[in-house]
Structure formats: structure tokens, C-alpha cells
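Note to self: user wants both folds in one dump. Writing first protein now.
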Amino acid sequence: MIVLLSGQYALGISNIDQSTKDSLSLKIKSFKNKGLDNSENTAYIDAVLALAKEYRYYNVDSLYNLTRKAQKLLIHADHPKGNYNVYFNYGVYYSDKGAFPKAIENLNKALDIAYNLDDDKLIASALNRLASQYQYGGDYEKSLMNYLKGLDFAKKSQDNDILSIINENIAHLYASQQEYDIALDFYKEVTEINKKLNNPVVTAQTLSNLASIYTEIGDTKQAMFHINQSINTFEQEEVYDWLAYSYSVKGEIYLKEGKEKWALYWLDQSKLLYNNNLDDKRGEIALYNNLSLAYMGTGSDSLATDYALKGLDIAKDIQSKEGQIDCAETLYKIFKEKEDYKRALCYHEIFTSLSDTLAKESNTKSLKLFKTQLKYDQQKKELILENEKKLAKQQNLITLALLVLIVLIAAAIPLYLNQKKLKKLYRELKIQAASLTEREKELESSNTTKDKLFSIVGHDLRGPIGALQGLLEMIISGDLGQQEANRFIRKAKTDVDHVLFTLNNILSWGRTQLNGGNTRPTTTNIYKLAENNLDFLDEMAAAKDIKIINDIAKASNAFIDENQIDLVLRNLISNAIKFTPNNGLITLESEESLNHIQIKIKDTGVGMDNATKEKIFKANTNFTTYGTNNEKGTGLGLSLCKEMIEKNNGKIWVESAPQKGSTFHFTVPKLSENLKKAS
């Protein structure tokens, strides 16, 4: 784990130490004694906000409470920088609590204030913190974009502190994607900036993060060299939060070398500091996971289990996906070694599912795409600059020609012809630009289709297949007896049925996409289409003793794309079975109007609340829940059903309430009399 640097507040950068807190506390006490603890004294408000920041790694709730106190005073004060610090502090607080949306919301408010103040340093700091937040949330493309914007403003402000911080955070971003060469290039830039700063603590922070990267690469010699230097500095300067982190990194280095006893010594040193009033949840997750691995290496499985579970609980609490993945993987290894295969398989499924959700491979591609975009932007800037030089040169020639126009009128004719050629070229370039814009839209549409397909495959196929793979490995290796194998095979059968159902949906959807997403309506009998799907889903309904009645009028002929509406019916009936308990009832009905046929699929299932009804039809989401018998969703979701219905000039909606069942309605165009005669 590498520590992301937060950047600076409007009040400046300060390393967390007791002397700073004491100094600020005395300053605040002095203001109170003089009766200056009010909204008119912005220096008092600034001191409260600065003290709040100092409590981040000691008591994050004190950070919130002091910031809240300052915010109340700022209601009656004209102090924009104070408000900037308020929202910045809230962003840090909600980030540490794992409330990512609230963190993003408050950091954007801070950024807006910085833009209004036209303060390059504050803008760079807010963009850096916002980028860090997106990085914690796994959105690496947005993270990199905000880091690079922040870097531009940091250069404009000529502030080496924030330049060092942002370059180091970009290095960590690339390191997290295993782009170590690029990460080390950024660290070279950081090292040069740190020489100008001449701040031993800042240099030590960089060295400790470098040590973490060298540990990941496997270069433990370089890692140990850097971490020992940083530990010396932090011990001398008494910077305990970074010292705790550095001890943990040193323990991780020994783990990499297979020296578990030495690893435990340094990890215990780190734990002592964390237990002594430090409040850094992300650091604790990495520490507990490393302690678990170290104890597992020494054969202390009970302690290994306890620490891994502690780390997993904290990771869940702050919604750290990377932390949950690491701890779940460790628990899988522990229980497999203890031959507790049921719990091992459980944590293996958690690890596989979260790994897919994080989608690191997809984010790596996004980074590469963004690097390509940066290269293109640079080339475009160079082309614009060169064109401006040519235009300036041409303007000089025209000016010169005007001066000698009376005596050299003939010289103007070639210039006139040249200008006509330029206009023609401009028109051609404009046409080409329009063509490129159209192609860009087509590519965006293609990328959206690709992303949706990969999201479905990663979300709903890889998890069950990964679980099945783990089961088969245990059977082949002889880890499972016949009786245990038979019990897990039943679950595997359910997972395979789910995969088959999802594949059928993907193939149906894929045929539509191969047709360019076009709808090809034909005369189709909806009753027969429903009957075919009931035959297909009969086994699924029978497993839950669910009765399905098809009361759709047999003469319900519509002018629709048969493949698309077939996919809609299959998903809606499947969902009805999924959310209807055993011995339930599902009814299919139809109702004809002048121009449309309305289909109703009604169940006696668990129903849904208003919040769920708002989510299920939204585009670009894979909102799935487990059914009454823990059946998994198809992954394609109702958003695809909505897309198919709307392509067929219809509408789809749902009526539902918790524990009162659901009724899904959709309309499609009725076969007109002219088409009936033609057919």
C-alpha cells in the first residue's frame, strides 16, 4: 500500500505532530480569553480549521466537530478561504469514513470556491484531493484527469510543495496499475522537486512510498535501503502517522523475503503506534492483512484468522474494495490450509466477485486510452502553434503587399488566388472535421456496447465460473470427499443454469447489436412467443412449484422485432419466477387498444419499494438482487428490456409494493389492418 498525499489547505501544509496541535490549542485559548472567539475574527476561525486538520490521523470525529464549529461561525463572516477549508475538511472526513459520494460532493464545493477566488494553489490542492478520492473509488481515468489538471495549476502557482505531492500521487496511480516504469519516472521528477524544498519529512514520505513500490516489484534490497532512511527521519522528527506506515512497509519487505519473524517484529511496532491514538483506517487494513500473512507463515492460524477478519471488517466499514479483496484472499488461503473448504469457498467467491467489480483491467485500458488522448492533445497544440506561425507570416506578406499596392498591383493577384485556395482548403477541412465528429460518435456508441457486454460477462459470468473453477480444483486435488463434493455440485448446477440463461440473453442481445442495433419488425403472435418462453422456463418454475397462467389472447398479433420482444418476455417471466416464493402464481394477460397491445406479467412475489423501482430501468446499470431462493440475476437487467421496448415504439412500467407482488406492463404496436391484408 502506498499513502496518497492530501495536498495543502488554504492555511498551508503542516506535518501532524503534538507541538503543532499544542501551539494551535494555545492560540485558540488566547483568542477565547480575549473575547475574540467570534465570527468577526477570521484568524480564530482559521486556527480552529487548522486544528481540525491536525486531528485527522488521531481522531477523525474531532476533525468533523471542529470543522462544524468553524462552519457555524462562517455563516456571519465574509471569508471564502475559510469556507474552502470547511468543505475540504468535510471531503477528507467523508473519505476516511468511506462515504465516497459525500466526499466528492464536498470537494467539488471546495473546488468551486477556489475557482471563484482564482487561486491556482487552492485549485491545485482541491483537484489533487478530488483525484485521490476517485482513485480510492477505483475510477482511475477520472483520477488521472484531475491529477493532470491539478498539475497544470500547480505549475502556474509555482508552488513546489503541491507539485511534489501531485507528481507523487500520479506515480502511485500508475504503480497501482503495475505500470512501474512510468511510476518511477514520476518519482524522479518528485526527487528533483524535493531537493528544492529541502524538507527532510517530505523527502522521507517519498522514500517510504518508493520503498513500497520496490517491494511490489520484488526489489527488496532497494526497498530496505529507502525505508530505513525514511524511518530514521520520522523517528527524529516524531512524525508518528508516517512512522507507523513505514514500520508496516518494513514488515511487508520481510514478508516478501520469507522472514516472518522479522516481519512480525516490525508489524508489531506499527500496531503499537496505531493503538496509540492513531486513526488511519486504510493503514490499519494493510497492517492487519500483513499480520495475518505473517502469522499464517509461522503456523499461528488462529491469530492469522483474527487479524484478517479485523482487516475485512474495517475494509467493509469504509467501503475499501482493495482492502476487502486482499483480506478475503488471505482468509481463503487460511481456511483452505485448515481444510475448512466450505468457508474457503465462501471467501474465494467474495474475492472473485470483488475483483471483477473493481475491474482493474478495464481501468488500465482507460489509462492507456487517456495517455493516447494526451498525446493527441499535445500534437494538436503543436499543430495549432505551427498554423498560427504560418498565418502570422502570411499576414505580414499581405501587409507588405498593401503598402506597395499602388505600384505593385499585379503582385496582389497571386496573393488573392492563394487566399481562395486557403478558403477552399478550409471548407474541405471543415467537411473532414464534421466527418471525424460523426466517426467519433460511432466509436463512442461502439465502445458503449463493448463496455456493456464486458460488464455483463465480468459481473455475471466470471463470478460463477470462478467459483466452479475453485470447486473443480478442490475435487481434482482430492481436497473434497465424495459427500462434500456432491453437496457443492448442486450449487454448481444452479450456477451453470444461471450462466446458460445469461448466455442465451447475451446471444439474443448480440444479434441485435450485430444488426447495428436496428429493429426489424415483422408480424408476430405474442401468445405463441410467450408459450415458447414458458416452455423454456418450465423447469425453473417447477423447481419452486410456481403456477404460470398464459391468458394472453391467442390472436394477439403485433408488428415487432420478434428477437427483441422474445428477450423482453424471457427476462420479465424469469424475474417473476425469481422473486415469487414457492407455490406462487404468475399470470400473463393482454389488453388491446386502438393501436397497441398491452401485455401484463403479474406475480405474487415479494414486490419492491419506490427506491428500487427508480433504479431498475436506468441505463448503463447492472442492478441485480438475489431471488427468494437466492437465485442470481441475469445481469442484462430491465434497462435492456426498456431499450428493446422503446426501439419497438412501446413503453414499459411497473406497479409494485413490498410484499404485494409486482405487475410489469409493456405496450407494442398492434398489427394494422393494412398489414393484415398484406400478410
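First done. Writing the second protein, which came from a different request thread.
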Amino acid sequence: MKIIASLTYYYPHWTGLTAYAKRIAEGLVARGHEVTVLTTQHSDDLALDEYHNGVRIVRVKPVARLSRGVISPDFPAVAHRLIRESDVAQIHTPLLESSLIAGLCRYHDVPLLFTHHGDLVMPEGGFNQTVERIMVAQMTAALGLSSRITTHSQDYGENSDFLWPFANKLRFIYPPAEIPEPQPEVVAAWRAELGLTDKKLVGFAGRFVEEKGFDYLLQAIPLVIEQMPEAHFIYAGEHKVVYEDFYGKCKPLIDRYAEHITFVGLILDPQKLANFYAMADVFALPSRTDCFPSVQIEALLCGTPLVTASIPGAREVVRVTGMGLLVEPHNPQTLADGLVKLLPDPAAYCKPQSAIRSIFSMERTIDEYEALMHEMVGLPAPTPHAQPALVHLYAEPTPSLPVVRFPSRPAAQPLDSQGDPAERRRNAQLIEWLDLGVGDRVLSCGSGAEALRAQPGVQVVELAASRAGREHSAHHALGGAAEALPFADASFDAILVTDVLEQADDDRVALRELGRVLRPGGVLAIGVAHRNFPLWWDPINRLWTLVGGEPLRSAAFGVWAGRRRLYRPRELMQRVAAAGLCIEAVAETTHYAVPLTPYLVRATGRRGPVQKLLGGLMHGVDRLNDRPAVAGKTGFVNVLLKARRGTQQ
């Protein structure tokens, strides 16, 4: 195949992203493919057209810098020519020209692989935030035109508001990581040279930018030193970043704790980098946001365990290897606690290098990219070079259950106290799952109590959703301590929960509480707002978040109003399983709806001639959800889940 790959910077520029692209390009060349990389000439002494390790590098001259990106008038013409000559194209994002390349690929009928290295997070300031909005809009357009999308882990993809609307195109491929074996004698000599022989070393590395969260680590230093005076922190990387002076903001902290920090500079030599990882007793990753930092795999391959902020993507390595600790993000105290826990005996957390390589394999990564590109151009699958991945022995269990999309037609009725058709459809299915009998005692948390009271012989105890304005709200009761619900253990035969978990301060605590008051064998039916809701349901929030904006939680109306979170099916399943409940069914409901339904329902009220007319229109549109073809759609209003408390609990 002839492959054209494009990214802003390539060899000899060195970041995790460029290292990733270089390894993929050279790995594909080694298997007989022709790979051309289109990039920018980031230094005047670089050739405009040259080969390196079999990869052709075509560079265009930039004329101006735009924050992290550059502008080159030659880029469109060169991209047009190279794409026309190629069988498949790949872009590594963030990339300013992503929509241009996607449009050219569509014009020349060349399939495009969109490889995403992390949602764009720019520094504060009007200019940078404007650039972020422009780039996110460009990349969103490119996502729509791409044939396939890859990112580094399922955990990251499912938690990315940028990627998940295009979930039908998503594939998850671990990064290609490779690093030499450390040299113990050299490591010991380096420690002695730095005067750190008797120290417990915490390593950290990367660009000194805000998203890496190094300020949290700096704030954790006195908390660690207080308990472990022998601890010391060593940093490798470029701290002078042209587009962001985060180092300057952190300078007061760096100066304050200078005696506990050593800077060893940017390390480009792979062998020296391996020795740096091996010199550290623990490697810290305190990031605010990070897709999948390759430094984690490199540290593990060098025998150094991790203390990592538990954020989507970054937490993957510790989850699947067990080699380290996950700590609460954005919290210097929990970061310090994790370091103090691990530093005395790092070896207790180490796993055999063979176990790490069985999960993170360079050859397997190239296998997966080669197979995906073959699929995109219609070629037979190539013979893999690596062994199939072993079961992740140290991975946390994830519930496995198919998510169904099926209609549950609500009875024809006007827009009344049971709310809009999506709400009625949701409640009808949840109540069917409860399978209530005469004499059953049911707890209603949220907005389904009226529907429950229509069930004959059922005793209903209500905790209203907070947005209903009731004095004793389910949000309040479930948002506090583990004993927040004012009921004894095993008080209810069934529980209905709607519009509550999204508002709870801690949904994990809330689910444990619900499990506590449910009798053994009882059913819990949950309805929550879907994170991947249809565009027309709330176009204001959907479009705003697609261009990088934060959800409009403080607005009077809309899907995010008053909610801390929305859910995807997998997220809800993980939460419920972690609470010790047995999941029996998961569903997504309501794809078709009148545009702006959340706004219209709350703006017009629920009774009167206008509301009756609006209710009839909504009901008519809602009938489209009864069609079997809905099962093939993406984007739904609600996630529903049925769970049962075990009889032995």
C-alpha cells in the first residue's frame, strides 16, 4: 500500500505523539508498504524532502505560528498531490489542517484513518481558547469524513465527548512502545553523580504544560517530605514551551522546593531515557487530562511502578497491569498519599517484564494498524506477526451484557404530569422490569411515582427528584453519607430511580445506598440521561460541546441543567456492578424526538391548549421510535438498566 500520514511535527522533533507516528510509519515500511509523512519544517536546517529509516518525509515551510500549530501556504497543494497518489491516508491529531486533508481524501476517494492522541486542551486566555474552538471544529468535521477512527484505549474513547458521537467508526489500539533495557551500572553511576544515591526517587517527565498537572505534584512535595524526608523528585523534559509559560506560573513552587527537585533536561537518547526511568523508584503521572501517555509503558518496561491520576485514558496502564496505584485526580494530598504508600517497597508492585510486553506489544500494534488499513482499502487481512494478546490478568472486571434498543410504546396521552414522551417511554419500560405484585413496597427516587401509583395494590414511598422542587429530594438523600437514606436495610421489594444519579454528589455512594435498602432478590430499575443524546434533543449543548465548550449546566433548561454527569451504557454498568448488584438488562430508548424537547417541556409547562397541541406533536414524532430500524441508530435520550440484589446478600 501507498500510505500518506500527516502531523504537525515529525522526526527529529520529539514528543510522545511524534514518537508514536514515527514507530507506526517505520513499522509499516518494514512490512513492505510505502509510507510518506507530510509535516512542517520546524527547523531551517531540515531538508524539504528526505528519507529516514525508509520513510519519506515531505516538509512544508511555515510562515507563522498559531499557538501550538503553524500556518503554511504550501500545505494544501502538497497535500493534494500526495493524497492523490496514495491508497490510504492517516492523520495524527490534534492537527490544524485535519478538515482540509479529510476533504481532499473525500475528493480523491482515498479512505482516511483519523488517529486521535487526545482531546485538545489549550491554555487559558481569549486567543488560545479561540484557537481551541477553531481546531476542535476543524477536527470534528474531519471525524465526520473519516473512514475509521483510532484512539489508544476504550476507556479514553468512551469518555471523550469529542470522539464518542462517532463511536461506530472507533477502534482501540494500544500505542507502540519500545525502549532499550536499562543499564544498572550506568544508573547507579548517574545516581551517584547527582548525589542521589540514598534518596527515594520520584520521576516525572513530559512537556511542562498545564494539562500534565505538574503543579499538583509540586504541591504534593512537602506532604511527601513530611513523612519521607529521603524522598526526592527528578524531572526529564522540556520546561520551556513556546506556546505556554506554565513553568513560569509554577516557578514560585519550584524555587520553594528546589532542594528536593532535580532537573535533568530533555532526553532524546532512548538508552539514557531507559536509565532515567530505572533510576526512579516510582514514576508519577498527575495529569489533568491525558489520552495515553507512552511514558507509563516505558517506565513499566524499565521496572518502575506508577502512581497515576485516575482519569480516562491515563488510568488504563495501571488497570490492565496492576503495576502501581491510581489516585484521585486534581488532588495533591491523595497524590502524596499514593507516593508515600508505594515508595517504601516499589518491588511489591512490580510485574515481570514479560507480563507487560504480553499486553503492550510493538509488533501487535503494527499488526492492528496494518489489518485496519487493509480493511479500509478492501484487501485481505495480512498475516499477524505477534502472538494474540493474553488475558489482562490484573485488569478490573468489566460487566459484559448486550445493550438493546427496543421500543416500549407508551399509551397515547397528552403532555401531562408524566412529562414528555421520552419520559413516558422510559418509565413504561422500567416499571415493566420491576414486575410488581400486589402488596409490594416500592421506593420511587425521582419522577416516576405517578406512574407507579397506577399499578394496583402497590405501596409507593416517594423521594422526588430535586428539580421537582420537593422539600425532601432524592438528590439530597442520595448525595450524602453512606447512611443517607432514612430507611432500614432491605426495606423495599423494588426501587425505581429516574433523573437522580445524574445529580448525586457521588453516584457510587448513591448506588450502594440503594442496594442497602433493597431486599435480597429485589429489583432496581434505573433511568438516566444518555451522554450520546441525539443532536435534535438539545442542539445547543451538543454543538457547544462538539467545539470544545463545557456543558451548560447552569442554564435553566436543556439536558445538562442541574446535572453533574450524563451516562453511556458502559459507564452505568460499571457503576452498578461496583455497587455489588447483578445486572440483568440494559437498554437505550428514544432516538426520534421533537427538536429542543427539554427546553419546550420546561418552558411551556404541562397543561393548557398550547401544551396539548405540543403534546400531540411530540407523541406523533415519538411513534417513529416504534420502528425496528431504530435498533440500528446511534444517539438516544435515555439509558435504562435493570439490576437485582443477590439473594445471599
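Dump finished. Worth passing along: Residues 126-145 form the longest helix (20 residues).
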